[in-house]
Amino acid sequence: MTPDLLARLNAARAAKRPVALLTRLPDGAQRLSIDDAVPEALAAAAAAALRADKARNVALDGETWFIHPHNPPLRLVVVGAVHIAQALVPMAATLGYAVTVVDPRRAFATEERLGAEVAISGDWPDEAMTALAPDTRTAVVTLTHDPKLDDPALEVTLRSPAFYIGCLGSRKTHAKRLERLREAGLTEAELARIHAPVGLDIGAITAAEIAVSILAQIVAARRGAASENLLRGAASETARGPKPDKT
Question: Are 61 and 41 in contact (CB under 8 A)?
C-alpha cells in the first residue's frame, strides 16, 4: 500500500466515511471505492461488501479483486433512559452496537440503571445529537414520550444520514408528533423516515418484548429487508394499531 493511499484510507476512517479498499489480484494494484475512479460493476460490488460488512473476492472483466470494507462502528443512540432502554441497551450491545443513552434527567440516566458499558449523555437532546453527529451506521430511537425531549432530538436526527429513526408511541401520539415537526420546518420526506409506532409488529407488550421488536426492525433496516412489517413502520397513520405507551 502506498503512503498516499494509506493516508487517504485513514482520513476516510477518521471521518467515519464507509470506504472499501480494492486490491487487484495478483498484481496488488489498489484503489479506494470512494475516491478513485473504478468501473461501475466494481463500485457496485464494493457497495454490496460495505452493506454486508464482509470482505469478498469478485471476478469482473477477467480480473479478480479483493474487496475489504472499512465501515464506521455501528452505533445506537437511545433518547430516554426508560425501562425499554434498560432492556434494549444490552441486547444492542450483543449485536455489536456502541450504545449511547441521552437523557438530561439525572435520576433516570445512571450507570446503576443502564450498566457500566453504555455511554450516558446528560445534555439536552438536540445538543447531544449535534455532538454525536449520527452517520450512516447510526440508529436512533426516542422513548421518552415527552415532546420537550424527543422533538429536539428528532429535529437534528431527521436531517442526518442515520440509517434508522424510530419513535415510541401510538398512531395518535405519532400524528401529533408529525404536526409539531412540520411546524418546526421538517419536510414530508424527512418525516417519512420515522418508524412509528416503533418496532416490528410482533404483539410486544412488556419492555423486553418491545426492545426485541425495536432491535429486529433496526436489523431489518440495516440489512435492507423490505418486509411488509418494516415498511409499515414508516411514518404513516395507516401503520399498525396502537401499542401501549410504556415508559
Answer: yes
